[in-house]
């Protein structure tokens, strides 16, 4: 989740909260790393929807 997404979900978010969310001392699991790698491959293949396309699909 990006900082922009967090900001949209929480009207009041301060820098300390943002830093707490962004910085995580725990390493990612093998599952999470594999999911990230697969997502990157999908993006490179052009297999994604833009925000505008998603909104249109859901009538927003």
Alpha-beta classification: mainly alpha
Number of domains: 1
Strand content: under 5%
What composes the largest sheet?
A: none
Radius of gyration using CA atoms only: 15 Å
Helix content: 55-70%
Question: How does the SSE layout of this entry go?
Answer:
Blueprint: H1 3-9, H2 15-22, H3 30-44, H4 51-57
Give a quick rundown of the structure.
With 60 residues, this protein is mainly alpha-helical. The protein is built from 4 helices and no strands.
Textual characterization of the structure:
There is one protein chain. The chain is an all-alpha fold. It has one domain (3-57). It is built from 4 helices and no strands. The protein has helices at residues 3-9, 15-22, 30-44, 51-57. The protein is elongated. The two termini are 21 Å apart. The model is unreliable at 1-8 (pLDDT under 50).
Q: Which characteristics define this entry?
A:
disordered N terminus; mainly alpha
